[in-house]
Write a structure and sequence with these properties.
The structure is a single chain. By secondary structure, this protein is mainly alpha-helical. The protein contains 3 helices and no strands. The chain is elongated and about 65 Å long.
Length: 86
């Protein structure tokens, strides 16, 4: 019984480390995208957001099986696109 608990604790710790790594990657990508958006001209930003919104609509309407939570993806993309270039 102790071995089973120990194995479960090890697996839990591994999953926690994986989630931390994934969170760090997502944060890094968000910083990168934010920086890139900040460097865009207003015209480029408008074109970019228009294209992204079209792609989001296409992804969510075609029921892609690899998208587990399309509503959350839409929400986060729109949050990122609320940034306005200088």
């Amino acid at each position: 019984m102790k071995n089973l608990i120990a194995e479960l604790l090890v697996k839990l710790a591994e999953k926690d480390a994986e989630l931390d790594e994934q969170d760090a990657r997502i944060s890094a990508l968000e910083c990168l995208v934010t920086s890139l958006i900040g460097q865009m001209s207003s015209t480029d930003f408008y074109s970019f957001t228009t294209r992204i919104n079209e792609d989001i609509t296409q992804f969510t309407s075609c029921n892609n099986t690899h998208l587990k939570h399309p509503e959350l993806i839409q929400q986060h993309m729109r949050k990122l696109l609320q940034l306005k270039p200088k």
